[in-house]
Amino acid sequence: MNLKENIAEGLRSIQGNMLRAVITASIIALGILALVGILTAVDGIQNNVNQSFSGLGANTFDIVVKQYYGRRRGMVDKVDPPILYREANDFKELFLKKETATVSIYTQASGSAEVKRGSEKTNPNIQIVGCDESYINIKAYSMLSGRNLNDVDLNISAKVAVIGAELAKTLFPKENPLNKNISFFGDRYTIVGVLQQKGNMSDGGDDRVVLIPLTAARQFDTRGNFSYQITTSVQSVQDIQEAIGEAVAVMRRVRRDQIGQEDSFDVERADALIKQTEQITGGMKVGGLVIAIITLLGAAIALMNIMLVSVTERTREIGVRKALGASPQKIRTQFLIEATVICVLGGLVGVILGIFGGNAVASLLFEQTSYLIPWNWIIAGLIVCISVGLISGFYPAYKASKLDPIESLRYE
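User: That's the sequence. What structure does it adopt?
Assistant: Structure tokens below.
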């Protein structure tokens, strides 16, 4: 029998034992569904994370104050003093003398403000950020309409604002928000720009933002509690480590950190979250593989049992084939192909369900615009199916090939 005839015989055998074959194929399908589905979802999540931070690149970093709260092992955590406006400006001036870079100073005036427009108002979850003209570009925002903040706005502490996409939809659902007024903290601001939607990487926080001139935001710092953050972008990713080293040296000088004393600030790279997410998704992939392996192990045992029963039921058939000249190798090949056909049929169903399921999960977690087809995992899943079929079918096939033809013909 050639390969085509063996496959046809395998399909006929499956039809003759439809219930058991369907159950086994279903178990195989569940294992491949777990494998392909989880890994597709993880890849979709990682792609959305990468897209959300693609504009930031690996050539930017922030200087922020360490924030520790509470107690650990009976010891009170140290709280470093905030970065003052003077310190941020001193850093910018000193750093730009040595490095070719773009530096932006910003501060969060509020993370839970309520913004009003006439009688309309938002939930108290709007971020009010005071920044300079470089902030939008470094933080990978894009203008949907209007203009960015400029030097004139900062010099005169102008009451102007650039608002996020979600805020614009909330307060101006059917009209152009440009040159309209909004108010918060008792002050009225004129909208000069609207940002494009950035996505829900931060649960929509980047779209619920109001950007105002840094000098205007300083007016809310009545107690001197604001901590000013510094974000820096260098020209090439190859320069990032050298730039960070220089930035640390300059900031320690500005902050007057003593020799041997720990830094009173943190340096955070823009791609740090991507690396953290890759570690998390890597763990999720391992979990998906473990689930798939356990499920496929159960399917392999069930498949081996079905094939052993099939060998017993078809003992006379095996005897007839051997009597007609079929070699033990031909018998082994036939049963191995039958086992593999069952696995491949179940695997194809699992792959299709896994692709749809994985993309559905990624779409629920993120506003996914592209449909991901993980060819690597599809190929891996099918290879696993064939491997399971060969491993599970080997012993039954070997047993069938060793049957004595005379004894097999006498079998009732």
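The chain has a mean pLDDT of 80.
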